[in-house]
Structure formats: structure tokens, C-alpha cells
């Protein structure tokens, strides 16, 4: 939860408020993600027991692919860090008036301190406490708000009257912001990309003793995120039921879409001592858990996957510790500086999906090439990565530039301001901004509201791909890498399965490779592994050993006892075309 929770707390309710409950359908994709990660990707990393997920790419392809993926990861985290800081700063600014950049600096300083001093252990413990606080605060606010409004039935009635209850939009138009297809397919690939191969998650899986416990943890994570996202989506419906006749953004009660939930909390729970503060603490907890995770994992990738293999820096002892702390500080300072950019972009949820797609779709595609397709080679992986990152980077940056310039704006569902003149009787004006730091909001501020610009505008001069739904960006990047990578691999000779270490593949493909080798052994054919994914001075036996019969080490990882096989003269020189068709037929 810690990787996305800070954005989810504020971004999801705002998304549902402005665009309806269609976003709720993303839970279907997330549920499928949990199954895919647990049974397709987790077994590979737990089998290899590597310290970094990007080490896999060097084992499967070569160091160039590993370095390229690491650079993408670092860029992605540098784009994500300022968004994480922006979330609590925005919420605290709403209730106190303290400047965004000052709040962001303080939050970052606190997080840098306990991350650099405590390392991964501090991150795990603080994340646990922060996530519990975040859950409790959000649930408590929803319960209180539902009671105040008259129950769940009244909430659904107002949402239905306002056209917010939408679940079955099957429009295939990829320019439509939310449809059943974009949320199920796009949500599935986006969430799988981040939870299957991203270092921030893989480092946690590898901390568990065996595959069974890692799969159980993945199941609990999936259940937790489904429940939490459901609460956040309901919070968006609840906010609309509260402001169904007076949109706060149109009435200028807030400056940004993502301030909706903080405003709602201040207005509906102000009479209960401590609840507003508890909610703000929950938002800060969500942000700190995300920030600490990103800082720790990014530092680990820079040191493990960049400095040591690429720059050949062999640091030990105190110097390694000093460098790690220094990197955490530098990353924190960069994120503070980028706050000036983030505040001019749109909804934080859309920004995260859009910018995150550059690295998420590309990296996920490269890992999937290696884990699922034995015939994918280094040339295909590199070419696919370049093609995917270039395409999605161009679309993501172009669309965000169009949003920032005002040329592109999503069309929101209808919003009303007819009841704004009666707000003074229901909520005291002093609770719109409770801090003496800010000038109190007067009745005249919202007695003559300006309608929010949700009306249609001409976007003919905006390039069509910039108008693509942000949910489709990660799938587009993933598919680009897969298609280009497989075509280039096929055209450049593919990769013979006899050269490959079966442990580098998902269990289904691994067992297929071992079965093929047993068949070749029976026919008297063996090959010495050379090239992509080769074994170090070892030739695998072709004996097939099922997963449940493998020897399990004390740490829970399994292995196949291999034996050297004498090289024979009966090597078969098949073409890559024949291998491709034969492999495809066996998989089917």
C-alpha cells in the first residue's frame, strides 16, 4: 500500500467526484493483478534470490539491458517523489494556509532522517504504523460523514440523481477517460507493472523466507488495496452527496481538485475534537510511507545496479553507508525542487498514471519478455525498451504540457452551484479555513460562484494521442515493448532454449523447457549453453522435476540438482523460424 497510498487518499475521491463511479471498476483489474504476480512473477525472483530485481535482466539478457531498466526506474522515481510531497502539502495548506514548499521541505527532512538512519528496517516499521493510521483515519471520516448525511441510502440517492453512478460504460473509444475496458485492462497492466517487477515491491518479497509466504503476503496486499480503494471511491460519492448543489471548486472554496477531501473533513467533522487532526496525520502518514519506500529503493538501485556494475565502485563499511545517506539527501532535495512543477499539473492521480507509464510500461514489457518468452534475445529487449520508452515519453510529456498550458482539459460530469447561498446555514464560515494564518473565507466569496469550466471546449489543435485516456498509456508502452521486442528477436535469430537457465522463467515456461530437454536427452541430443541467459560453466540436465518435488533450501528457495552432460556431436542447428513455431505450438 505504501507505494501509492499518498496519491490514493486524495486523488481517488476527487476522481470519483468529478467523473463518477466508473473508476470503481478498476478493482477487477487489481484482483487479477494479485493472481498474476503471485503465480507468474514471484516464483522467478524467489527462485533466484537476487538482491535487486534488475539483476534478473543481466542474468537473462546482459548488463546493458539491466542498466537501461535501472535508468528508467530512477527517472520514474524522480518524477514520483515530488508528487508524494505535494499530496500532504496540499492538504495541510488547505487547513492552515502554510506554504506548499515549506510543508514539503519539512516532510522531506523528517523522512530523510529516519530513512537514512534506519534503512530498510526503519522503512518497514514506519510504513506499518503509518498505513494503520491512514486506514483508520479514512474509515472514521467516512463513517461520520455517512451518519451526518442520513445514511448510505441518502448518499446513493443524491449520487444517482446527479448522474454519478456509472459502472458499465463499454465504449471502446480510447479517448474516453474512464470505460470498463480502459479501467480493467489498463488498471490490470498498470498495477501489475508496479507490483511484479518494481524494485520497491520486489525488495519486500525477497525479505520473506519462502515462496508460500510471499504469495500469502501478495494475497493480503491485494485484499487490503481492494478494501482501501473501495473506501476511497465511496468517499468520492460521499463528497458529491454533500456538495451536490454547491461545487467547492466552482465556488472557489478550494484552489485544486485534490483539496476536496481535506475541505470535506474540516466541514463535516470540525465539531469532534481531534478528528480533523487525525485525518491530516493519516494523509501525512500515507505520504511518508510512500516517500521513505521510494527513497530507500532508489538509493539501493543506484548503488547496486549503477555504481557497482557500471562505475565499478566497490565501497565497503562506513563509506558505503555515507554514500547511501548522501544519495537519500540528494534525492530529497531534488523532489523539493520539483514541487514548483507539480503544482501546475492536473489531478495527482492522473499525473501519477501518466508520468509513471513511461517507466512502468517499458520495464514491465522488458521483464515480461525475459520471463515469458524463451526466444526473446538481448537485441529484441533493448530495441523494444527504446521504442516503448520513446513513444510513451513523447505522449506523456506532450499531454501534461497540453494540460498545463490549458489546451487540454478533461470534460467533467455536470456540477451545480445553486445551493451555495445556503451553505452559511449548514456550516459556519469559520470552518472553511480554520487557521488564523489565512484570511478567513467570507460569505461573499461563494455567494456569487463562478461555474467550473467543465463545458466542452475546442481541442482540435491538440494532437490526438495527447488526448488518449491516461489509463491506456501503460498498456500501450507494454504492448510496444512486447511487439517490437519479439519481432526484432525473431528477425535476429531468436534465442535457443537449450542455452537458457530454466530458473529464469515463470514456472509454466520453466517446466516446458525442462520437459523439452528430457525429450532431447532421450533422443540423444544436448547443447552447451552459450549466449543470453547462459549458465555459468554448467550444462543443465534434461531431467524434468516437477515444482512440488524440488528440493527446498532452509531459506525456502527451490532448486533442481543439475548434472553435467557430455557434449555430443549430434547438435541440431535449427533455424529461429522453426524454433519459434515449435515453441509456440508447445505452449498452446
TrEMBL record:
| Superkingdom of the organism of origin | Eukaryota
Q: Does the keyword Ion transport apply?
A: yes
Record InterPro entries: Na/Glc_symporter_sf, Na/solute_symporter, Sodium:Solute_Symporter_SSF
User: Pfam family example for this protein?
Assistant: SSF
Q: Where in the cell is it found?
A: Cell membrane
Q: Name one GO cellular component term.
A: plasma membrane
Keyword terms: Cell membrane, Ion transport, Membrane, Sodium, Sodium transport, Transmembrane, Transmembrane helix, Transport
Q: What molecular functions are annotated in GO for this chain?
A: symporter activity
> According to its record, how does it sit in the membrane?
Multi-pass membrane protein
Q: Does the keyword Transmembrane apply?
A: yes
Q: Where are the transmembrane segments?
A: 23-46, 67-87, 99-117, 129-150, 178-197, 218-243, 271-295, 322-342, 348-373, 380-403, 472-491
Q: Which GO terms describe its biological process?
A: sodium ion transport
Under the heading NCBIfam families, the entry gives: sss (TIGR00813)
Tell me which family the UniProt entry assigns to this protein: Belongs to the sodium:solute symporter (SSF) (TC 2.A.21) family.
State what protein this is by name: Sodium-coupled monocarboxylate transporter 1
